[in-house]
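User: What would this chain look like folded?
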Amino acid sequence: MSFFNDILTNLPEITKPTQKRLPFNEKLKWTGIILVLFYVLGMIPLYGLGNNALQTFQFLSIILGAEFGSVISLGIGPIVTASIILQLLNGSKLLKFDLTTSEGKKTFQGTQKLLSMFFIIFEAAIYVMLGGLSPAPGFGSGILIFQLCLGGMLILFMDEVVSKWGFGSGISLFIAAGVSKSVFIRLLSPFTTSGQLGFPFGSEAAGGKLWELIYGLTSGSPQMALLAIGAIVATVVVFVVAVYMQAMKVEIPLSFGRIRGHGIRWPLAFVYTSNIPVILVAALLANLQLWARLLDNWGHPILGNPSTGTGIIGWISPAFASSSTTGGIIGMLIKQNLTYVSILQSFTYVFFMIGGAVLFSIFWVQTSGMDARSQARQMMASGLQIPGFRRDERVLESLLNRYIMPLTVMGAIAVGFLAAMADLSGALTNGTGLLLTVMIVYRLYEEIAQQHMMDMYPVMRRFIKQ
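Assistant: Here's the prediction, encoded as structure tokens.
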């Protein structure tokens, strides 16, 4: 154990700021620097890359905050995988970390970093060895694996810079950056599918939905204009509904046992497990699509063909509703080619997303310390109790049980349904990615607003801390 602690102690890390509280402009500067660096790294191609079989999995790249074919092809995948595994091991008591002490937190963070480094090397080797990123003739696999590992390490330390010197976390920032870029390109790209400048510089509409809308209105093509409007409206609706759900909370009144007359309201979010269930369902679906494609290439289409949307994989994924081709359900309605099979596939996909989100949400609550007993223990440790009741953990647990499980199920249903409808409606980007970005940006906005308020009015700092 001492040897393991020595390894954790000597892991490279980003130095913490010497100030107790960084000013707003300093945090904003470092967040901006890392964001620009992330975009730059995404434009650097892998040297010696041949076939890029992963480029068809744009859905997966958005979730991972990656750019397949570049030095950051791994994205945040290794970090997220290490975090989820460690959270589950800690929540299930297979590994015990005392997160109430600074030493326990340091051990947990060091173990997570070490596990992330392992997954960076492991996933880099898997991507290359299984043919996802194949070397060009005359190049060995080692040069690709080295570049992938280098990019993964850069992402790991960039995440640490944001966590210590910026706003939020690098993982959230990279997901939001990838989805925002996707939305920006799908909305404002001036290039056609053939790579030429489109309207107003050419004779055909550009790839951006805004230019398609203008081109459709000026060239007398109402169908093109309606398809563009449908994609834009679907994206806006998903954004507004997601923000509304994120702001919904149930507040439980609590009081400090030793301070009479002073209490707080403990907020429980309507989307109690946040976006974790949708991430896990999306990861499961992406893996099923990957295995379906591999089995189909090997001549054993057991799961179906993800390209044509046939077989099992076609019934649990919106294969026919790609926003870049058909425009989803809205596009099929406008083109008048919506079939009963497509409608049935839509319902199957919605039920799959909702059912998966509920199952993963319940599983996550039970294993990550978000259940009623763990929350009651945390409140008791903070000196909180229910006004008018004796100070007893069982009383708090009984009260929380009335809220946590219903919020877990209802929040998962809402998030799963919204993610599925965003995919089916043909929004400007993947529905899961859009949901993640809305939640990330909302929380980032709250943190920036709070930091700015404390900088403008230092006296508010005492009230916010209370």
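The chain has a mean pLDDT of 79. If you want, I can go into more detail on any region.
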